[in-house]
């Protein structure tokens, strides 16, 4: 079995081909913070990563791609979504109360969250109002931390 070549990080490329962060950002048409996030392996949008790779390719004089450079993008993550199904308990009563049930899913976007929650929602047909709330920062339940995002490889 053939071993896959290791990818270079942006920081490693910067050691071999020194570049100024604001200059690279300007050449790529992205914010300075975006290049910085890529350098420290924080997720950025794929479109921004592609622009950085193009600018870096011009700077180094060699074509660079995602196969050669390890840039973390948001496409690599699934985010926590809180799915709420609810209904009012008594619509004729002046003190109507809401009946709520919740489900948590990790999804790319709202549409993906709705697809993943579909089987659960179909079992809750008496709860007619549905809402989907992204929670990328996660939350705590007592001393249990619920992460706001997972890498796709972790699933």
Question: Could you explain the architecture of this structure?
Answer:
- The structure is a single chain.
- It is built from five helices and eight strands.
- The model has no long low-confidence stretch (mean pLDDT 89).
- With 155 residues, the protein is of the alpha+beta class.
- The strands form three sheets. Strands 3, 4, 5 and 8 form a four-stranded antiparallel sheet that branches.
- The chain has helices at residues 10-16, 21-28, 32-39, 46-60, 110-122, and strands at 8-9, 69-70, 77-88, 98-107, 129-134, 139-141, 144-146, 149-151.
- It has two domains: 8-72, Orthogonal Bundle (434 Repressor (Amino-terminal Domain)), CATH 1.10.260; 76-154.
Structure characteristics:
155 residues; alpha+beta; 434 Repressor (Amino-terminal Domain); 4-stranded antiparallel β-sheet; two-stranded parallel ribbon; 5 helices; 8 strands; 33% helix
Quickly describe the structure.
With 155 residues, the protein is of the alpha+beta class.
Rg measurement, Å = 22 Å
Work out the helix count. 5
Model regions low in confidence, pLDDT < 50 over at least 5 residues: none
Inertia-based shape: elongated
Strand content: 25-35%
The total tally of domains equals 2
User: Mind summarizing the main beta sheet?
Assistant: 4 strands, antiparallel
Task: Write the topology of this structure.
Elements: E1 8-9, H1 10-16, H2 21-28, H3 32-39, H4 46-60, E2 69-70, E3 77-88, E4 98-107, H5 110-122, E5 129-134, E6 139-141, E7 144-146, E8 149-151
Helix pairs in contact: 2-3, 2-4
